[in-house]
């Protein structure tokens, strides 16, 4: 925020008193107005200013409620669980659907539900129609889940339907690439140790963060995550993070590296919240948990 130049200019007499009174009123309304943290210049900003520890924490600032969607109530996907901020005081939120991998259930990615929702998103962890559905089908199912979420779900009024994203593990991660290819209006995609027979993704227009795992022998990074990342348009906001000492199944248990960079990516591209750019650019350094990171910085969209 920039100080009004008049506040630093010297005045005398009654005009000075009036100026001071006006400044006090303006300052007070800035602190106490609707959504204490909603910046005037970004209507999508939600929650307090982030810190390294706030994005690493097991829970963010929002209390979370959940509701289950039965397989029978769902069309085009297998039902799931919706996690959402309990309070309606901060207006609507962006939303993200998350698909599990081959043979896996929603429970394999459920840790992400409250972890992401508590930062200020509506999160839908889904089951697929069958556990052996391929990435193309999983992409369609992620989109069907987003449509259910924004058009039919009990929390549809809490969602900004123009700000949506997709995530997924393995074939679900491959599915998140498929979903973004089908629906370029998606604001963020996060494939986690993704698997897909299609190795090239130049069609994507959605900012994409790909997690690979250095010890993945099921979807080895050399034939999955890396070529997926490398074939995204170089003009696209894209990042590749390779988890260190991690297997294909790293995204199936609570993982702070996945959480902190996913939160930052969703905030930066679903909410346009540039307060999170500091965690993405410059790219993370090699560490005990990160083998390698690639990406364009600063971001362009
Ligand atoms: O979803 C996945 O875990 C994909 C890896 C896999 O089992 O592929 C074998 C066809
Ligand atoms: Zn390593």
From TrEMBL:
Coiled coil: none annotated. Keywords: Hydrolase, Signal. SUPFAM superfamilies: alpha/beta-Hydrolases (SSF53474). The keyword Signal applies. Residues 1-38 form the signal peptide. The keyword Transferase does not apply. It holds the Pfam family PETase. Residues 39-298 form the PET hydrolase/cutinase-like domain. Belongs to the AB hydrolase superfamily. This is Lipase. It comes from Streptomyces griseorubens.
